[in-house]
Specification:
alpha+beta, 434 Repressor (Amino-terminal Domain), four-stranded antiparallel β-sheet
Length: 127
């Protein structure tokens, strides 16, 4: 599924660090008095990445597709399409699902693609 790396815990138990398409998720299941926590940060550039993040968060929260669909007032079929990046999903519904999953979508300037920058440099040199 995901590459795992044990990062240790205050009680000697293990915290799993998952990596998935730019997603880093830390799941703590220790008995040190802290409740299970899930933290995720993702830099996404595609519908596939966003769907994968939603699926990973849903699974980490222990929710079924039907539970999330019911809470977001979408059909289970719609949620399946969103998680697998099928065409035709409404952005409004995406925000409803992200809210149920306790996720926020932040938008920032996209870093330039280094390959495009090099192409521009080589094009300038050729003038």
């Amino acid at each position: 599924m995901w590459p795992l790396r044990d990062v240790g815990c205050c009680s000697g138990e293990h915290v799993h660090d998952h990596a998935l398409a730019g997603l880093w998720m830390i799941i703590h299941n220790g008995s040190c008095g802290r409740s299970t926590t899930v933290e995720a940060e993702m830099y996404t550039r595609s519908a596939q990445d966003l769907g994968a993040l939603a699926r990973a968060k849903r699974e980490a929260l222990g929710l079924t597709q039907q539970q999330v669909a019911d809470r977001a007032k979408v059909s289970r079929e719609w949620l399946v399409n969103f998680e697998s990046a099928k065409v035709g999903v409404s952005l409004f519904r995406v925000f409803d699902v992200l809210q149920v999953l306790q996720l926020a979508l932040d938008v920032s300037d996209r870093a330039p693609d280094p390959h495009n920058v090099l192409d521009d440099v080589f094009a300038d040199l050729g003038r």
